[in-house]
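Lecture 7 notes: from sequence to structure.

We start with a single chain of 209 residues. Read the sequence below before looking at the structure.
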Amino acid sequence: MKNEMVKMEVLGQSMEVADVKAKVRGAIQLAERFEVKTEDDIEKAAVHLKRFGDARRASEAVRIFFVKPLKDHVKRIDVFFRVMMTPATAAESMLKEKIRKARAVISERLRVQNEKRERLAREKFEAEQKLAKKQKQEAPKYVPPIQKELKKTIGGATATKRWTFDVVEERKVSRDFLMIDQVAVNQAIRDGKREITGLRIYQKESIGT
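Now the structure, written as tokens:
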């Protein structure tokens, strides 16, 4: 069998695939009707279990044989374009960061200006209210000044805001937002640790083929 890309119809007709199909034919029906109650039943079930495990491994080997050339080809294409676009990606990141920092400075400046504009408008309104009251005229209505904001569209780009966070004091974070490091726990168990406060460490049997 040549190691080359194949069509699905050719794949289905290959001897290797046909052999795997023969090994797993009727597997579900057998497993459904097979009763396992005694040690003798366990031995018989284990024979079938090994047969299906062998078939699964054989199927995986055939799959890899056909798929590996495709994956290798796709990987080479991905690498080619990733390398080609490295300068653009790096330049894009640098410019985004520069724009973000500049917008943060300008945004703060506008905030200060808006607060000052709001304060002056409020002071003017209050003075007009006093004058109107003194002259027994209708009190004017307050019209807030227009707030100046940065444009969200910048050339061909769009600026958006999203809520995010930084950890300030981890020990004060609610347990609702914490999770157990399963990788670290499993590693500790493999290293021989058998007692961890808040956890029950036990042995769970699994059946291998």
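The longest strand covers residues 153-154. Keep this in mind for problem set 3.
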